[in-house]
Amino acid sequence: MGIIRAAINAVKGGLADTWLEVIEPAPMGEHTVIVPGQLVTQNGKSQNKKGSSNIVSNGSIIHVYDEQMMILVDGGKIVDYTAEAGYFKVDNSSMPSLFNGQFMDSIKESFSRIKYGGVPSQSQHVFYINLKEIKNIKFGTTSPVQYYDSFYEAELFMRLHGSYSIKVSDPFKFYQQVIPNEIITQNESLEFEGEFVRQYNEEFVTELGSAFNQYSADGNRISFITSKAKEMAKYMRDALDDDWNEARGFEVFRVSMGMPAYSDESQKIINERAAMGASVSFLRDGANQQAYMAKNIAEGINAAGHNEGGAMGAFLGMGMAQNMGGNIMGGYMQNPQYVQHNPQQGMNQQQPQQQAPRQEAPQQAAPQQADGSWTCGCGAVNAGKFCSECGTPKPEAPKKRFCGNCGAQLTEGQKFCPECGTKQ
């Protein structure tokens, strides 16, 4: 018993002339995995009802559409099938046709294990297995998943959510291991959702940890996971291959991950690492380094003016901190990573400079320079109001005097205007 291919003209003529039964698939939704065949009358309306016998007689015409596997069932056993689109006639006198379609010869072995070789009965039925991608199957982890991120160099804990899709890879295994018996005996459709899918979601989430371990071992950052649908699908296929593909005839096709919800401790690690990365990136530039040090010095000078213990102590402490900061920045500027970004400054820092012998600084404070800096009596050049080395206040510049009568500038100690002779 089996099916043979039929030409469309013969189907139309036969239906019109002899009222042969014509069977086509019941509607398939987004999550539908299997539907029964339904009888079509001459005017195109279905006669099929839920739970009806839907017996297929010899000579019936079966419609098969793209991305479907039609199976002819006799007494619960598959007697023939086709994965090719077209019109097929039931012929109980013929051998199984084995129209493999997209599966080529890969499913013949599975068919040989479950085929029915008895006498044609009066309980033949038609079912259609959906070969399209079954999409948007939601999942979520109830407890945090552990993940080692080499970028953060830390174990992160997070809850995951998203969706995945499946695709039937071996319809016969799928029919035997996944489809409940009552679906066949009662001629019903089956949706991959609700209570039926709960077991597979639990298996999916359980194996998600194994997939994450491999994802981590390959050096991937967890923050990129939302854009790694294909890679995660591959990891999950590998993790579930024995349980789903080999044993049940379907596989993970695609995985879409939402943004992970990190634990408080993991989020703290991520924030600290991001802030550290931003600081290092900022200080790679020499100008940014100088600005950073100048800002700290200015803040120190401002704090010195408000120091309750006296400006002298504050400035001595700031001078020590400045020297320490200079040593730190000098060491950083010799770092190979800094030299890569600032080659000229890096070379200048690495080349030893011969220092001139220190000379005794004059005790009397030097006048203010054109750029506003001034030289203390101890030899230190300063920009603020106090010397950064000894704390000496900045000397006040002599005030300029002008004649009240003619406006001529007067020198220190002049009592009469050299221009108009007015007494000052």
Structural class: alpha+beta
Helix content: 25-40%
Mean pLDDT: 74
Helix count from the secondary structure assignment: 11
Shape assignment: rod-shaped
Number of strands: 19
Beta-strand fraction estimate: 15-25%
Unreliable stretches (pLDDT < 50, length at least 5) are 10-19, 45-52, 354-365
Written as H for each helix and E for each strand, in order along the chain, the element string is: EHEEEEEEHEEEEEHHEHHEEHHHHHEEEE
Q: Which radius of gyration do the C-alpha atoms yield?
A: 43 Å
Distance between the termini: 134 Å
Question: Main traits of this protein?
Answer:
3-stranded antiparallel β-sheet, 9-stranded mixed β-sheet, 19 strands, 11 helices, alpha+beta, 424 residues, rod-shaped
Topology summary:
Blueprint: E1 2-6, H1 8-18, E2 22-25, E3 32-40, E4 61-64, E5 68-74, E6 77-82, E7 86-91, H2 108-114, E8 124-130, E9 134-140, E10 145-149, E11 154-159, E12 161-168, H3 171-177, H4 181-185, E13 190-191, H5 195-217, H6 229-248, E14 250-257, E15 261-262, H7 264-283, H8 286-305, H9 311-333, H10 336-341, H11 343-350, E16 374-375, E17 381-382, E18 401-402, E19 409-410
